[in-house]
């Protein structure tokens, strides 16, 4: 069996010194007066983040926080895969693989790993315990750059199935958001006999039937919002799905360019009522910057665009957590036409990054769903 190697994050000081020097030499753009966010993330906000990054952000503290969790690497299908793997102290725990998206990393899940793996220690029911596996997507952050084309969501799902096999898990749950939506769907299809259920905190609605009279005004509003989003994709999506290599030169060479690219989307997709503090944001940026994965992480958009079509329906039981300030909100009646929906929760707060924004809500919903599906 291929080797699984323990991993510990230890960034050379020379890399941190180089980052500081680059931040000191930033060549700032001009900005039109009064445009605010209409032209993108404002200059003042990026300068504020860059100043914190340069003077008071403590990478070594964040590195130590990551290193407090067991991490490993292994090679699957020619790609290096980094993953966090925390076994529960509860012997009957259900294995659970969690998939992040873009711009995210395994660091997004540090607040939920403890409650999921050891609910007894966090005021919960030990019957809700999970063995948690959180891989870094191929080409993203600590997995390092991919070395060949073809890493679309289906290939990643096959890699996840192989990873869970290597860890000795015969049955397991699946959770994801953002890219974790199509990857989790595909994993449910690849390993149907092993996946007991898929829990998603983000997904789109399938196309509506010709007769939409059964839809409520709220449902119709959600569909309009989704159509508008798909008809006029955000600039980041158009660039990463068509010209990721062109984009990569600026992001790889300029830490402030990488900072602005990620901070723009994290800010837009986060519920202001819950928010993500600046140090958590900077940790995400650091993980992309230090690993040089701006280019390879962007390529997933290109790979998936060339694949074409929406994600395939998931053949196993589905649970859905809808957070009020997410990018798009799914319509339950339409989702139920394509999926075996056994659990659905609507939350009045939280955005696209619930593991960071509202970890208590996400943890509770994951527990509630897997109580229903258990093992098969």
Beta fraction of the residues? 5-15%
Regarding quaternary structure, what we see is single chain
* Secondary structure tally: strands: 9
What is the average of the pLDDT values? 94
Parts with pLDDT < 50 across at least 5 consecutive residues: none
The biggest beta sheet is recorded as: 9 strands, mixed
General form: globular
N- to C-terminal distance: 27 Å
Strand order across the largest sheet: 1-2-3-5-4-6-7-8-9
Continuous helix count: 15
The helical percent reads: 40-55%
Overall structural class, as computed from helix and strand content, comes to alpha/beta
Compute the gyration radius: what is it? 20 Å
Helix/strand order, N-terminal first = EHHHEEEHEHEHEHHHHHHEHEHH
Task: Describe the protein's architecture and organization.
This protein is of the alpha/beta class. The protein has 15 helices and 9 strands. It has helices spanning 13-24, 43-55, 59-67, 110-117, 153-166, 180-190, 217-231, 235-242, 244-253, 255-269, 278-291, 294-307, 332-338, 354-357, 359-373; strands spanning 5-7, 71-76, 79-86, 94-99, 130-135, 172-176, 195-200, 318-323, 341-347. Strands 1-2-3-5-4-6-7-8-9 form a 9-stranded mixed sheet, with helices on both faces. Strand 8, helix 13 and strand 9 form a beta-alpha-beta unit. Helix 4 packs parallel to helix 15 (359-373) and helix 9 packs across helix 10 (255-269). The two termini are 27 Å apart.
């Amino acid at each position: 069996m291929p080797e699984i190697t323990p991993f510990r994050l230890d960034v050379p000081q020379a890399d941190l010194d180089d980052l500081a020097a680059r931040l000191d030499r930033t060549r700032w753009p001009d900005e039109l007066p009064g445009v605010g966010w209409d032209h993108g993330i404002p200059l003042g906000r990026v300068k504020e983040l860059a100043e914190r990054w340069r003077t008071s952000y403590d990478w070594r503290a964040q590195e130590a926080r990551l290193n407090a969790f067991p991490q490993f690497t292994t090679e699957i299908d020619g790609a290096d895969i980094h993953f966090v793997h925390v076994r529960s102290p509860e012997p009957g725990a259900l294995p659970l693989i969690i998939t992040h998206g873009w711009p995210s990393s395994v660091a997004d899940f540090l607040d939920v790993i403890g409650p999921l793996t050891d609910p007894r220690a966090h005021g919960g029911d030990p019957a809700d315990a999970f063995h948690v596996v959180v891989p870094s997507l191929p080409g993203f952050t600590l997995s390092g750059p991919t070395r060949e084309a073809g890493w679309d969501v289906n290939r990643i799902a096959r890699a996840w199935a192989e990873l869970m096999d290597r860890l000795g898990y015969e049955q397991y749950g699946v959770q994801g958001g953002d890219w974790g939506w199509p990857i989790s769907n595909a994993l449910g299809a690849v390993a149907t006999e092993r996946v007991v259920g898929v829990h998603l905190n983000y997904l789109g609605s399938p196309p509506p039937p010709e007769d939409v009279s059964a839809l409520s005004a709220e449902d119709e509003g959600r569909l309009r919002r989704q159509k508008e989003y798909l008809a006029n994709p955000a600039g980041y999506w158009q660039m990463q799905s068509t010209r990721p290599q062109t984009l990569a030169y600026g992001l790889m060479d300029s830490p402030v360019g990488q900072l602005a690219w990620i901070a723009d989307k994290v800010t837009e997709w986060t519920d202001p009522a819950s928010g993500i503090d600046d140090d958590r944001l900077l940790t995400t940026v650091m993980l992309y910057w230090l690993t040089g994965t701006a280019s390879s992480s962007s390529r997933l958009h290109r790979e998936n665009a060339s694949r074409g079509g929406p994600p395939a329906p998931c053949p196993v039981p589905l649970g859905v957590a809808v957070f009020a300030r997410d990018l798009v909100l799914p319509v339950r009646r339409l989702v139920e036409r394509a999926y075996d929906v056994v659990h659905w929760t609507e939350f009045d707060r939280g955005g696209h990054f619930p593991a960071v924004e509202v970890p208590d809500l996400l943890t509770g919903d994951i527990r509630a769903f897997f109580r229903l599906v258990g093992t098969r």
